[in-house]
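FW: tagging you since you asked about this chain on Friday. Here's the raw sequence from the shared folder, copied in full. Didn't touch anything.
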Amino acid sequence: MFKPIELYIGWRYTRAKRRNHFVSFISLTSMIGIALGVTTLITVLSVMNGFEQQLRERILGMVSHATIHGVADNPAEWQPLVERAERNPRVEGAAPYIQGEVMITNAGRVSGSLVRGILPTYEQRVADIEGKMIAGDLSVLQAGEYGIVLGRDLALLLQADIGDKVTMVTPEASISVAGVLPRVKRFTVVGLFQSGMYEYDRAVSFIHMEDASRVFRTGGEISGIRLKFDDLMAAPWLAREVAAELPGYYSVRDWTVQHYNFFRAVRTEKTVMFVILTLIVAVAAFNIVSTLVMVVTDKQADIAILRTLGISPASVMGIFMVQGAVIGVIGTILGVICGVALALNVETIVPFIERLAGVQFLPGDVYPISDMPSDLRIQDVVRIAGIALLLSLLATLYPAWRASRTAPAEALRYE
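HL: got it, structure written out here
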């Protein structure tokens, strides 16, 4: 009457109250284990995706997609090179810069800093520094005014604020009648920025490119040209394409090279976490083996009667595969629902737990990101659900095969 018969009997066995309560307990444990494993996998991968996305956005908010450096002498006439680079339809902006390392002092405090000389109008084409300003304005940087924009953490260390005078000490020395003296220059703090990356907020500062040329005595030569493309993932080959179009020989470094080890470490960690957490699902899934083995032992008489009624060994195997698959499907569905709900609300739940416990899980002075981001991706959900279902199905094969090998005469001998 019911087609297919394997699905009907398998579903009925799943719903029936067993005489062996230990079997029911293991079934429930397996289901909960699969649900917890799937929930954990979805949540952890979503958080790691969020970290990777946030780090990429914050890093690329301060650095360019690619940088072109001169192999020999850097060109003093940078305007034609910038114009030539911007002719490429894939280039959204190009900006020259001068970069050097200095010591900055204020109020008896000293700190090293990576100073980048920029042209504010050009710099906005390749980096979103203006959007990260928390005080002052980047456009205030004017040639000859010797203004400086500090990172928030660097300013806190130096106890410097808008309008304060800080002293910049360059690594080059000046020879005078008084002997060899370090070259120093006073700068006025005209702005503060916060990128969200501690290493940038703690060590980077900006001045006007002409002021940087005077401080570092470059004679008008630049350190390189920063580029921004319409597709950051195409930066490796686009940067080389642009460099090939420029007159002369240049070295090119894109963001994947500059931060290769960092993003590779993030991807490796995400892969390892996926494998480790998948083992949780595997352990829960293979608990189904124990459940079905005990069910098969408990249902020996039923199997024998079904065999005498003409049901085939393949159908018997299908009955118990359905029963095990139901446990896996229900556990996976529950896990997907809980995992998606948790991943979508982790940015709200974590701050609530932090306030409740009075702790901060990710201190800003230790970790580059102090909040808990989440980026739920449908492909991850589908992959995790597919793996959980596959493991659940594989776990049913041996007990179901063992049930199909039951001999009716032997099973009914003592009934």
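FW: The chain has a mean pLDDT of 80.
HL: agreed, and The chain has two domains: 5-58+262-412, 66-254.
FW: great, closing this out.
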